Amino acid sequence: MPEEVAVKTWRELSRQFAALSWALESALKEQHELGMSEFEVLDRLVEDEHRCLRMQELGELIHLSQSALSRTVARLEKDGLVERALCATDRRGVYVRLTDPGQQRHAEARPTHRRVINDTLRG
Amino acid sequence: MPEEVAVKTWRELSRQFAALSWALESALKEQHELGMSEFEVLDRLVEDEHRCLRMQELGELIHLSQSALSRTVARLEKDGLVERALCATDRRGVYVRLTDPGQQRHAEARPTHRRVINDTLRG
DNA sequence: GTACGCTAAATGCACGTGCATTGAATGCGC
DNA sequence: GCGCATTCAATGCACGTGCATTTAGCGTAC
Question: Gene3D superfamilies per the record (chains A, B) (predicted)?
């Protein structure tokens, strides 16, 4: 890939990401009181069979530093959307479990999320 | 485009952007004492015929809020890499002009920038 | 058992960003 | 000329993030 093409690709990537993340952030915040990172956590938890993941697993799925993820989960916990539970087999670890209110909030926000993605990627 | 495919696209976009912006940020910071946004400003200025753009023009090229751009330019100015000049025709406007040290710093950093992009997009 | 290194998650801190506001300058209507 | 809405850039402030460190728990070697 010639150098200038790579730069063009990067700029296009930036542009798309900026547009979409801004659109998601504002739509989720305004309509559902959720930040993008918060929704992302809920969205991953819903996909899990047991609606429960370890911090470490979440960290691999979500592009956030370990500390940022820790605080994001803390915010969700404060709002009662997830709960933390100690890991029985390894007490250093923490399970993050989706609560019923969390599942409900996600169900409300999900259509917004999907719609914004479709609209923005199309536009 | 089916809904799940759009979500996959978004997640892939996020993943690529996170990987590339992190790689750029750390490489530019470590090797050239430049943040990604700072480099982006220099990179756009170099491409301009007169190495000089209005804040507003920069704002359209770079995906940064107006306030963030203002501060990014302020940091560059503090380091002597750009200078601000009042716009003669509209005294509300500000021209941002690349200085010689700025051009030199960009020339040093550019190969790093291009290489990281190529390597990361390929990987 | 104890000591050591390693890993998981939380926290102090500094920094960059966005939002809202401010201050200055322009252009339009009158 | 005089207002008045609009535009451009800068700034106060709050917030989310990353880095570095801390705290706790694990595993291995001895």
Answer: Winged helix-like DNA-binding domain superfamily/Winged helix DNA-binding domain
Task: Report the pLDDT value the prediction gives residue A123, as an integer from 0 to 100.
Answer: 75
A-B contacts (CB, under 8 Å): 53
Q: How many CB atoms lie within 10 A of CB A72?
A: 21
We report the CATH number of the domain holding residue B92 as 1.10.10.10
Query: So what's the pLDDT on residue B1?
Result: 59
pLDDT digits (tens, 9 = 90+) for A21-58: 999 999 999 999 999 999 999 999 999 999 999 999 99
Domain that holds residue A29: 3-122
Question: Is A64 (CB) below 7 Å from strand D?
Answer: yes
Which of these, B54, B47, B42, B50, lies nearest to B84 by C-alpha position?
B54
Mutate one of A36, A117, A119, A122 to test the B interface: name it (highest B CB count within 10 A): A117
Asked if A118 is an interface residue toward chain B (Cβ–Cβ < 8 A), one would say: yes
Predicted confidence band at A1 (pLDDT cuts at 50, 70, 90)?
Answer: low
Is B66 (CB) below 7 Å from strand D?
yes
The beta-carbon neighbor of B18 closest among A7, A16, A63 is A63
Q: Rounded distance, CA B120 to CA B115, Å?
A: 8
pLDDT of residue A57: 96
Cβ-defined contact of A3 to B121 (cutoff 8 Å): no
Give the pLDDT band of residue A9 (cuts 50, 70, 90): very high
- Report the number of distinct structural domains present in chain B: 1
